[in-house]
Design a protein that fits this description.
The protein is an alpha+beta fold. It is 32% helix and 22% strand. Strands 1, 2, 3, 4, 5 and 6 form a six-stranded antiparallel β-sheet that branches.
């Protein structure tokens, strides 16, 4: 098993990516005390938002760590896939927002990391 310092950069990047997805869920899902509504749930292949209501449909965002991709699926049957590959947090943010827009989902989130020692927008 590799030592943590060998993949620390990946861990930090994935942490920021999950913050983006959690903030999307927090913004669109019904409010729950103490921001509990931003939690991501463990699945057999990664992490998911679970269904998020949006207008007359719902959608979910799943980190599929087995197939190295983000899967965004809607209750209308449409979906988008973003490959999990080396990229900056800004590029990930851009890709996820484009995918949501293509699925007719509009959301604005606070785009700076929170509760981390070194915060880079």
């Amino acid at each position: 098993m590799p030592a943590f310092n060998e993949w620390e950069g990946t861990c930090t990047t994935v942490h920021m990516w999950t913050q983006i997805v959690g903030k999307i869920r927090l913004e669109l899902a019904p409010w729950v005390n103490h921001s509990w509504g931003s939690v991501l749930y463990v699945t057999p292949v990664g992490l998911t938002t679970s269904p998020i209501p949006y207008g007359h449909f719902s959608f979910e965002i799943e980190f599929n760590f087995v197939n190295h991709r983000i899967e965004i699926r809607t209750s209308k049957g449409s979906s988008r896939i973003i490959g999990l590959e080396p990229m900056s947090v800004a590029e990930f943010y851009r890709k996820i927002m484009i995918a949501l827009k293509e699925l007719e989902i509009s959301v604005t989130i606070y785009d700076k990391p929170v509760e981390v020692e070194k915060s880079i927008p």
